[in-house]
Amino acid sequence: MARQEAPVSPPVVLTIAGSDSGGGAGIQADLKTIEAGGAFGTSAITSVTAQNTRGVHGSHLLPIEDIEAQIDAVFDDFDVAAVKTGMLATEDVIETVRGYADRLPNLVVDPVMVAASGDRLLEPDAEDAYEALIAESTLVTPNADEAAVLTGIDPENEGEAREVGQRLVEMGADAALVKGGHIPVPEVTDVLVTDEDVTTIRHPRVDTDSTHGSGCTLSSAVATRLSHGDNLAAAVESGVDLLSRAIRYNLDVGEGAGAVHHTVEARDRAARERTAETVEGIVAALIDRDVTPVVDAAGLDVVGATPYAEHEHDVAAVEGRVARTLSGLRPNRGVRFGASGRTAELLLNAREERPALSFACRCRNDSRVEAALKELEWGTIDLERDGGPGRVEDAIGPETVALLDRRASSTIVLAERAPTLRERVVTLAETIA
């Protein structure tokens, strides 16, 4: 007997862009990002590039009638909820896409002109044609170099980025996101400008040149969120958050600069259940091994971070900690994400220097614990001496095993793997006993 089907109906997003044979940018990056964001990706390829992580080695522009045939085929069959454009290459292609303006909902225009490798992807005489397409857009997303071409302003600070955004809105765009990756300020500063408001989004820079596909991924992520019905500000903030994580946890592929991790958030979400189950397993093992000697009245705080954790809500912990009772150690409640405060914060700070660190356990701190740490010769950081919890990433080294948080009467044991954390806490308890 045949099984009953159970179809789903995700929103449809169309990307009109070039193909990247290296898979990190262009249509390939767009479709990966759209799918990871819970939408159905469709495409119209404008050009085929011979490209890898080291550069663009060739490009073939498709005939206009072939580009039109792809767009027509998509709109004839799908209820498109959002559209993004990437590499359009020539004036004719830009004008062709503009001809569909009344059929392009939630249009996000990424005015691709130069690849991250420095290779030019837009003919010089096509630059002026972008103005008419921008006038039809819900959002335009230039970087600093593209902003200079489009507006004549080469933004070097937040104020000039605002001016760029205002110029683009004056051209007719509903909004402009001036990306700050190429603007020489300490933090990446993205500026979202509408005719009513200006919003600045700041996030730390990542020390990497593996940013291939960053613009494609951001614009696709925003278009995907718009297809789900998010308002523009929320869609942009979500896209910026995704890109920040995608750059930090980039893909080390190829011989040149790596690509951003297009599916990083989807993979992180997929790991949440496994992470929570692992924390439960650590807690069960510590109770079974009776680590009471390292438990004080505040209890054990056992935490586990997802593989690409960036925030405390990406860290699982026992809600209410593991308490010492007359009948032994007992978890107060179940494991949930965001249940830990200080221990999760310290683990995330440590991960800034050692991203592979995934687990931590808050134990008691007193002279006996400190004596045991010295006896075990574990690498230990004293937070008071070394600058406080906010500077853990500056003090931590490859051999660091524990953090002394005297103000909170805590010892934080760190590990990359769950079995290692379990054995370290058990060893510490046995050394004290």
TrEMBL record:
Protein name in the entry: Bifunctional hydroxymethylpyrimidine kinase/phosphomethylpyrimidine kinase
Pfam family, one: ThiN
EC number: 2.7.1.49, 2.7.4.7
Transmembrane helix recorded as keyword: no
Organism classification: Archaea, Methanobacteriati, Methanobacteriota, Stenosarchaea group, Halobacteria
InterPro entries named in the record: Aldolase_II/adducin_N_sf, HMP/HMP-P_kinase_dom, PM/HMP-P_kinase-1, Ribokinase-like, ThiN
Gene3D superfamilies, sorted: 3.40.1190.20, Class II aldolase/adducin N-terminal domain
Keyword ATP-binding listed: yes
Gene this protein is translated from: thiD
